[in-house]
Amino acid sequence: MGGLRITGGSGLVLEIKDLRLVFDTKPIGSSIQFISHAHLDHVYSLSLKNAVMSEETASILNTIGRRGEWTTLKYGGKLRVGDGLEISMKSSGHVLGSSQYVIDADGLRIVYTGDLNIYDTIVHRGAKPIESDILIIESTYGLPYYRFPNREKIYADIVKWILKTISSDEIPAFKVYSLGKSQEIIRIVNTYLDIPVVVSNPVARISEKYREYGISLDYIPISKVEGIETLKQGECVYVSSFREELPTSRRTRWAVATGWALRYRYPNYNASFPLSGHSDYDGLIRYILESKPKQVYTIYGYAREFSRSLRSRGINANFISEAYQTTLY
Ligand SMILES: [Zn+2]
Hints:
Number of helices: 8
Structural class: alpha/beta
Number of domains: 2
Strand content: 25-35%
CATH architecture of the largest domain: 4-Layer Sandwich
Number of strands: 20
Largest sheet: 7 strands, mixed
CATH superfamily of the largest domain: Ribonuclease Z/Hydroxyacylglutathione hydrolase-like
Bound molecules: zinc ion
Helix content: 25-40%
Radius of gyration: 21 Å
């Protein structure tokens, strides 16, 4: 095999069999770019050509005005590049269209997880671990401190807070990512409460994509008269990716939902919930144990700390920083 080289950057660069594959980072020369999902930190250097992503990711990017001649894959779909390199895609359980990439070359299997959630949510199935020789795994919450409560418990806390807020004649509002978290909040309200959900226009645009891909969500965009009327009447939930003044005489109470709420306080908010689209520390460990890699590379977030913690468990691990470079084989 023509060697394997791994380089860090804002994402990951793999050089294998005379090809350069870049994941969630800017293209270099004639590289092929792979995008794991449509969150902005993963697509800011998206190229117009030579990029590979899931159909759902391309569709979300189109709806926010990004276009290109991209190659799209379905989960389970395969792409052959160069001399005997096969690349396939599986769900990473993070948001609609989020993907893990599997690179097979002459019997060697490399997996890049992208942002990863192994737990089932009310919207998505959790990611399944993929067996590999070399695993490159995200480590946003790679510290033992980050152990999220059971998701049903978080959902119950969110529902309780919504009911309490409405019973004091106030509107419960969530400031959350327009891709991923917004749709989870909408589904929680749709599932457990008989209350309408009004959403900001960016949230409506992305939620529409979820519906196109068969995930049922019931909401009213604020751009519709019915959205404004519902806010005025008051018994509803509002979801947006930014805080805004709502067209209602009722007071609004704002909440955030993020894994960071486990550690940080949000004094400018009325409530915070540790609801995350990522795996926590235990989830990352479970993924690694089940995928049985010979070598682990951690990337993003607490990559350094997480790799140390893996080594202390006897797992062969290193972290990929901006300056990282290694040549294997
Ligand atoms: Zn993400």
